[in-house]
Amino acid sequence: MKRPLTYIMFGTTLFLLHFMFSVNLYVYASDAPYIAFSSNRDGDYDIYIMDIKGKNLQNLTNSPTHEFKPAFSPDGHQMAYVSSRHDGNPEIYVMNLNTKVSYRLTNHPGHDDNPAWSPDGRWIAFDSYREVTYDIYKIEPDGENLQRLTHGVVDRNYNATWSPDSQSIAFASFRAAPGIYIMDADGGNQRRLENQPLSGHMPSWSPDGKQIAFSDMILGGHRDPLFGGSRDIYTLNVDGSNLRRRTHHPAMDIFPDWSPDGRSIVYYSRWNQKTDIYLIEGGLGRHGGRSIDAPSSG
Q: Which of 128, 130, 125 is nearest to 140 (CA)?
């Protein structure tokens, strides 16, 4: 039994999986307790899924190039992800999870990244370097009706996450006041999330629409030997109230994502140059921690 490499201030922590150098987004399928993630255990990054206990590992992609940043459709039957399989340029693809057949959604010389499926299934938001910097775009799952939502000049806008009603998008930005911003689904009414002590990154909107989880180096930070200043997981109400620190230890805690019932947060934690998947569970309101056995990455 491995000990968790973290002290969790709120909730119970489960050690789900150990693997080397996998630092991409993982998400929950909306209709099944599975987590998708990318790992380079076979020499290049491919996408895998496992159940919430860290068991039943399955490989979804098997390309000689990299696949990463999986995002399930609301019905759990499709998955958007990033791949550079055709010409070495990262593009958004969509896989039918029943047939494992994928189609290419975007086709542009710019770097397309971080797909996020709207809860109503109508849109896939993503960030792309198509003009002078990264901006947020959205496109219909059939590849039609591409729309640019942010218009940065020197600031990078990235990591979109949808509100549960599909009416708003939160995202990270490196504009003059960096941090997490919220905008309407058409790109209007952009405003910074209030009461961020520093600048949040990698936002994830809770299923009840009330909170945003994010990674930040605030309220005191540690140092990571590879990345420098480390980050912890925090939650903040959408109205700017009730800032809460969810992890507290000298490591990089990044890419938080909520379970469908809103009672758990899964995230990456990097410690001693190794990256693991952890789960904060139990209503996010109790002290304590425990680990579970998980398959090795090999």
A: 125
Helix (H) or strand (E) holding 201: strand 201-205
Strand pairing report for 252-258 and 179-184: unpaired
Domain assignment present for residue 204? The answer is: yes
Specify the number of domains making up the chain: 1
Which CATH number do you get for residue 132?
Answer: 2.120.10.30
User: At residue 88, does pLDDT exceed 70?
Assistant: yes
Average the pLDDT over each of 4-18, 123-137, 159-173 and give the range with the smallest value: 4-18
Q: Which domain holds residue 237?
A: 12-281
- Strand residues in 9-90 grouped as ranges (E): 12-19, 27-29, 32-39, 46-51, 58-59, 67-72, 78-83
Please report where in the chains the tokens 């990455």 appear, as a residue.
297
pTM comes to 0.83
Q: What are phi and psi of 211, to 5 degrees?
A: -130, 160
Q: Work out the burial of residue 98: count CB atoms within 10 Å of its CB; fewer than 13 is exposed, 13-18 middle, 19 or more buried.
A: exposed
pLDDT digits (tens, 9 = 90+) for 97-153: 999 999 999 999 888 999 999 999 999 999 999 888 899 999 999 999 999 999 988
